[in-house]
């Protein structure tokens, strides 16, 4: 039996794989919020508007990077980074398809995003998440992120994390 493996590469934010994963990510987190707070799924028209409104262009070089993780060659997850200032990058769009979770992809995507942030010149990485995304909060804590005071005013953010980045890995 052949072992399934993850490969992670930078990819344009609007590639077909990135766009499909963004739709899956947004649908899941939006539906989770609406089910928790309003007992319904996201309205389809709202979903389309919000997906289109956040294209991910801020994850393009030279100040950003979107990574796509493939599990056995099939797109299965993403992580993005964008510079907030010369020293600070923001981690965003960390997502693994539900059917690929539990196979080590999320820590690999975060580690690759940290390397991408270092390559952009960042010495610190920050992120925000919601209270109901308990899996994400556990992942970040396990990977050395520390909960901090808010660094933005995102109306959906309830928890903020930061991590100091060491020097870039030497190849």
CATH class: Alpha Beta
Strand content: 25-35%
Report how far apart the termini are: 31 Å
Query: Uncertain regions: pLDDT < 50 for 5+ in a row?
Result: none
Tell me the overall shape. globular
CATH architecture: 3-Layer(aba) Sandwich
In CATH terms, what is the fold-level topology? Answer: Aminopeptidase
EC number: 2.3.-.-
Keywords: Acyltransferase, Transferase
Protein name: GNAT family N-acetyltransferase
Enzyme class: transferase
Q: Key terms for this structure?
A:
171 residues, alpha+beta, Aminopeptidase, seven-stranded mixed sheet, 7 strands, Acyl_CoA_acyltransferase, GNAT_dom, acyltransferase activity, Bact_Acetyltransf
Descriptive report:
The chain has 171 residues and is of the alpha+beta class. It has helices spanning 16-38, 44-53, 105-119, 134-142; strands at 6-10, 64-71, 74-83, 88-96, 124-129, 146-148, 159-164. The protein has a single domain (6-164), classed as Aminopeptidase (3-Layer(aba) Sandwich). It has four helices and seven strands, in the order βααβββαβαββ. The model has no long low-confidence stretch (mean pLDDT 93).
């Amino acid at each position: 039996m052949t072992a399934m493996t993850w490969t992670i590469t930078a990819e344009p934010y609007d590639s077909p794989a990135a766009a499909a994963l963004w739709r899956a990510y947004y649908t899941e987190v939006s539906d989770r919020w609406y089910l928790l707070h309003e007992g319904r799924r996201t309205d389809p028209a709202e979903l389309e508007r919000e997906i289109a409104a956040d294209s991910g262009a801020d994850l393009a070089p030279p100040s950003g990077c979107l990574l796509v993780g493939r599990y056995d060659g099939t797109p299965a997850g993403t992580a993005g980074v964008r510079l907030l200032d010369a020293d600070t990058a923001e981690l965003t769009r960390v997502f693994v398809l539900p059917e690929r979770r539990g196979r080590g992809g999320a820590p690999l995507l975060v580690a690759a995003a940290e390397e991408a942030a270092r390559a952009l010149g960042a010495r610190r990485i920050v992120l925000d998440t919601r209270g109901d995304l308990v899996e994400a909060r556990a992942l970040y804590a396990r990977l050395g992120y520390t909960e901090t005071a808010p660094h933005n005013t995102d109306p959906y953010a309830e928890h903020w994390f930061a991590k100091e980045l060491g020097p870039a890995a030497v190849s």
